[in-house]
Design brief:
By secondary structure, this protein is of the alpha/beta class. The protein is built from 3 helices and 6 strands, in the order E-H-E-H-E-H-E-E-E. Helices cover 34% and strands 30% of the residues. The radius of gyration is 13 Å and the shape is globular.
Length: 107
């Protein structure tokens, strides 16, 4: 398996609490990234956080089909002065700048 050095990087992984998204979350953490899980299933998030057991993993409840929800949560992150370098969207592709959304397109 290829290894990547993602130390000092942060990622948002949508659907990151289960399935393919969980596998991406786990791989990013193993590669040294800090990860913010975006998911709408609190039970799945709780289970994932318990299994991952990492201080580098946090979460937000986000419905990625709702543009306002995405915008609100990006604003929360940028207000905390967290720069986002990686963004994995399983259902949407969002290009972001360190202070907001530049372009959103159905992927």
């Amino acid at each position: 398996m290829n290894s990547y050095n993602l130390k000092g990087r942060r990622a948002i992984v949508t659907g990151g609490a289960q399935g393919f998204g969980f596998a991406i979350t786990k791989r990013f953490l193993e590669s040294g990234a800090e990860v913010i899980i975006w998911d709408i299933d609190q039970k799945a998030i709780d289970k994932a956080l318990k299994e991952l057991s990492s201080e580098k993993c946090s979460h937000q409840i986000v419905d990625v089909t709702n543009f306002d929800d995405i915008t609100k949560n990006i604003e929360k992150i940028t207000k905390e002065k967290i720069l986002i370098f990686l963004l994995i969207m399983l259902e949407w592709q969002v290009k972001i700048h360190k202070f907001g959304i530049i372009q959103m397109m159905n992927g």
